[in-house]
Design a protein that fits this description.
alpha+beta; two-stranded antiparallel ribbon
Length: about 110
């Protein structure tokens, strides 16, 4: 879905082996799609089934602390030895702020 949105907005997407390189413009689109459209649709579907729900994203309450991903070396491709790919705003989750998540539930 982010790829379709990016195409509609005229933002070129770069993929390497099916993995998106997330630059600043792509990060805006991914956030808009996942934290906005998809998040709120999930909440609406839950509400329609009688489940009171809220939708958060990882930026809300510093829920996730991420460490930027390292450059990924290509060592097994002909002509690509010694080359690394920087996937941009992509990383690994180092910490989940569970105390923030527990607050709405009185814990």
């Amino acid at each position: 879905m982010p790829q379709n949105c990016a195409a509609q907005l005229g933002v070129e997407q770069q993929l390497v082996d099916g993995r998106r390189i997330t630059d600043g413009e792509t990060l805006k689109i991914v956030t808009m799609v996942y934290a906005g459209y998809i998040n709120k649709n999930i909440v609406a579907q839950l509400q329609a089934k009688g489940c009171n729900a809220i939708g958060l994203c990882g930026a809300d309450g510093n829920v996730f602390n991420l460490i930027k991903g390292v450059l990924i070396p290509f060592s097994d491709r002909a002509g690509m030895e010694g080359t690394s790919i920087d996937y941009g705003f992509v990383g690994d989750c180092d910490y989940v702020n569970t105390s923030f998540l527990a607050r709405p539930f009185g814990r």
